[in-house]
Design goal:
188 residues, mainly alpha, 2 domains, two-stranded antiparallel ribbon, 2 strands
Length: 188
């Protein structure tokens, strides 16, 4: 649950920034305070709708893949991703207060900006989610009453154990289990 919460919140913040940048860079798109609600729609569409649409479109395109050249297949794949971005953008505009003027400048160009932004997010999402997870843990510990000396000591021990867990995680076999998990499974 924490992983999905951290991912959704970090993507939401990223989407707010991207929507504000689109509003600043394009005179045909007016975002303003609507970026807060539009980012909710954009985040939900990105997490839920985008994978489903890509799967459906790629499945349909795969039926005729053997008749295309390699270059043609790449063009089709990029076109499918753009169509999905376009659907997500249109839904965001319709369900939020984002004001769009002009067909090309308002509906065709912003999905390209979203695509570039999501490529950037994909490159840095692990670091963003790690930082957001640390912030989430800090806030959660403060909400639960702060740290005591025993919890700080146990956290220090857990941090030392995480290094060993990471090393053990690298020793995974093709079954995806760590040595510790494999030992526990064998004991059952």
């Amino acid at each position: 649950m924490k992983k999905w919460t951290v991912r959704a919140v970090s993507l939401y913040v990223f989407n707010v920034v991207v929507l504000l940048l689109i509003g600043l860079l394009m005179s045909s798109v007016s975002v303003g305070w609507n970026a807060l609600w539009a980012a909710v729609i954009l985040t939900v569409a990105t997490l839920a709708l985008k994978p489903t649409l890509l799967k459906v479109f790629r499945g349909a395109a795969a039926k005729s893949a053997q008749t295309r050249t390699n270059v043609g297949e790449k063009v089709v794949q990029y076109g499918l991703v753009f169509i999905v971005e376009l659907v997500v953008w249109v839904l965001t505009v319709w369900l939020s207060g984002v004001d769009v003027r002009g067909w090309f400048w308002g509906y065709v160009l912003p999905p390209l900006y979203l695509l570039i932004a999501w490529v950037i997010y994909d490159l840095v999402d692990d670091r963003i989610e790690t930082k957001a997870g640390a912030v989430f843990d800090t806030v959660q510990s403060k909400v639960k009453g702060g740290r005591t000396s025993t919890t700080a000591a146990s956290d220090a021990g857990a941090s030392a154990g995480q290094g060993a867990a990471t090393a053990a995680g690298r020793e995974e076999l093709d079954d995806g289990l760590t040595p510790e998990q494999r030992r526990m499974l064998n004991e059952l």
